[in-house]
Write a structure and sequence with these properties.
This protein is α/β, with parallel strands linked by helices. The protein has helices at about 20-25, 45-55, 75-85, 100-110; strands at about 5, 10-15, 30-35, 60-65, 90-95. It has 4 helices and 5 strands. Strands 1-2-5-3-4 form a 5-stranded mixed β-sheet, sandwiched between helices. Helix 3 crosses helix 4 (about 100-110). It is globular and about 30 Å long.
């Protein structure tokens, strides 16, 4: 699994699969944030599947889906910032490519 470190408490990646969660935990992450809405892409695991495997791996999980053009970006960034304040760190945030997670992180810091 590849990810990009944005700061010591946060890294981002593209889509996570249930089979990735034990590897994510082994890499030292304590939490995940999903920024990809369920059913956005064919074959994409839904958040309930990811959350169940995350819990088995000892990870906290948060769901903040962002649908471009439909989600209020300010509200989503506020939710992201709140999650970052509350969740055990380090956190891995993911979406389809990592771009939405990066945007939420940047906006939440403004």
């Amino acid at each position: 699994m590849q990810y990009k470190q944005l700061d010591p408490s946060l890294a981002i990646s593209g889509q996570v699969n249930p089979s990735d969660l034990s590897q994510i935990a082994a890499a030292g992450f304590k939490s995940i944030i999903c920024n990809r809405p369920d059913n956005e892409g064919w074959g994409q695991p839904n958040f309930a599947e990811i959350e169940a495997e995350a819990k088995k791996a000892g990870l906290s999980a948060r769901y903040i889906p962002v649908t471009p053009g439909k989600t209020d970006p300010v509200k989503a960034a506020q939710e992201f910032g709140k999650a970052m304040a509350e969740l055990p760190k380090p956190v891995l945030a993911y979406c389809r490519s990592g771009a939405r997670s990066t945007m939420l992180w940047q906006t939440s810091r403004s």
